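Hi all, a correction to my earlier message: I attached the wrong file for glutathione transferase. Here's the right sequence:
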Amino acid sequence: MSGKPKLHYFNGRGRMEPIRWLLAAAGVEFEECFLETKDDLTKLQKDGSLLFQQVPMVEIDGMKMVQTRAILNYIATKYNLYGKDLKERALIDMYVEAAMDLNELLMTHPFQPADKKEEHFATMLDKATNRYFPVYEKVLKDHGQDFLVGNRFSRVDVQLLEILLMAEEFKPDILAKFPLLQSFKARISNIPTIKKFLQPGSQRKSLPQEKDVSKVMKIFY
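and the right structure:
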């Protein structure tokens, strides 16, 4: 049996993508088992692999872990990406939770009904540029360090970079008013493990297209 973590999800971003990012940033190789049909999901549900009957699910260290945040917390702790003490962890958690809120907006945009997409897009950009990005810009300005917490690479740097790049896919100049976030993006993108993950042919997934949306809907609904 391979010692690599095994990721069970559809062949796309969704809630598994932050997990892929964090494993890649930690330099951990992983395998993927893609759900192609609704039957694939039903099989996992019936054989008891999914504690709450839903994916993502990650097989790691003899466990079948579900719930995205629980999986991310475990990986971050295991690979020393969760701060040096309780206070740093609290900061990381606050910044990550906000990032995950924004990620939810970005991730779900391709799945919005046609008559809701324009409104959703406006909300998404408004919250990114007026609620979330100004906070991270201020954090970087106030402490003047390379990383968001403790001047040490942590999970929040990984997850924020993922979101910055995703936001730029929707609006290429979205970081125009945030010079420190632009520098942060360049700096974190050059960390060797992340640079490797950003190369073509990696296990990073692309922005969903209409055909991908249709396939996912058939698996889950």
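Sorry for the mix-up. The domain at 86-190 is CATH 1.20.1050.10 (Glutathione S-transferase Yfyf (Class Pi); Chain A, domain 2).
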